[in-house]
Specification:
265 residues, mainly alpha, MetI-like fold, 2 domains, 11 helices
């Protein structure tokens, strides 16, 4: 019971600390937005009023939940796939200089290639289902996770490493008991970057394929000059990205409490 209560309190603190400044800034933005639209008589097909966007959200929440859930699943699928491949690649790289010199330039090539240029190719190769969206989300999350994982695997205390070797520890023991724990702060830093990127990747994929997801909603609303729907989809996307980032931050605080204590001391 006490553990459950402390977990709830921990979640509450994370949410307040992470969201309160954002909520205050968002409130100011909405007020300025409403005043500008109202006093400037801006047409709705250019910028809708906050009330019009709210009416669209409240009027059909199931519509945005359905498409938002599809985008969320695609983004998380891409994040898990990209992070897994990235960590495996970093694991091989840290044990082989040859693989490091071979894989890093290829990863950099993927990083500097605009994802919008690759998305149409993925649609041609993998069809109009969820596969291209997941792969695009995985591709855009791959590089930051791989670089941070590789840095974390290499950032180990040399004295501790020498101790492991002095007791004849195997490479797998050094990896799981030394390299992996040392890399966790770097990995979670990468996850905070990669999770919102995965949402972007899924949306870009939806622009080019399929009729489901918030990306397709944005494209259709844009073509129809339906600005309330377009702004509503953007707000749902923003809320999704913020929620995922807060969740990753919560996991980091729960799992890396030892790292926080070390930093504070």
């Amino acid at each position: 019971m006490n553990n459950l209560r402390s977990s709830v309190i921990g979640v509450y603190r994370i949410v307040i600390q992470s969201l309160l400044p954002s909520i205050a800034a968002l409130t100011i933005l909405v007020v300025v937005w409403g005043l500008w639209v109202g006093l400037g008589s801006v047409p709705e097909y250019i910028v809708p009023s906050p009330s019009a966007v709210l009416d669209r959200l409240v009027g059909n929440p199931g519509f945005f939940f359905y498409h938002g859930f599809i985008t969320l699943v695609e983004a998380l699928g891409g994040f898990l796939l990209g992070a897994t491949v990235a960590i495996l690649g970093a694991t091989v790289m840290v044990h082989s200089r040859f693989v490091e010199r071979t894989l890093l330039p290829l990863a950099l090539l993927v990083k500097v290639t605009p994802i919008v240029a690759i998305a149409p190719l993925f649609v041609i190769w993998f069809g109009f289902g969820s596969a291209p969206k997941i792969l695009i989300a995985a591709l855009i999350t791959f590089f930051p996770v791989m670089v941070n994982a590789f840095t974390g695997f290499r950032s180990i205390n040399s004295d501790v490493l020498n101790f492991f070797r002095s007791v004849s520890a195997t490479k797998s023991q050094i990896y799981f008991k030394l390299r992996v724990p040392s890399s966790l702060p770097y990995l979670f830093a990468a996850f905070r970057i990669a999770v919102p990127l995965s949402v972007i990747g899924a949306v870009v994929g939806e622009w080019f394929s399929g009729d489901r997801g918030l990306g397709s909603v944005i494209i259709i609303a844009h073509n129809n000059l339906d600005m309330p729907t377009l702004f509503s989809a953007i707000l749902v996307l923003a809320a999704t990205g913020v929620s995922l980032t807060v969740f990753v931050s919560y996991l980091e605080k729960r799992l890396l409490f030892w790292h926080e204590i070390g930093v504070i001391s």
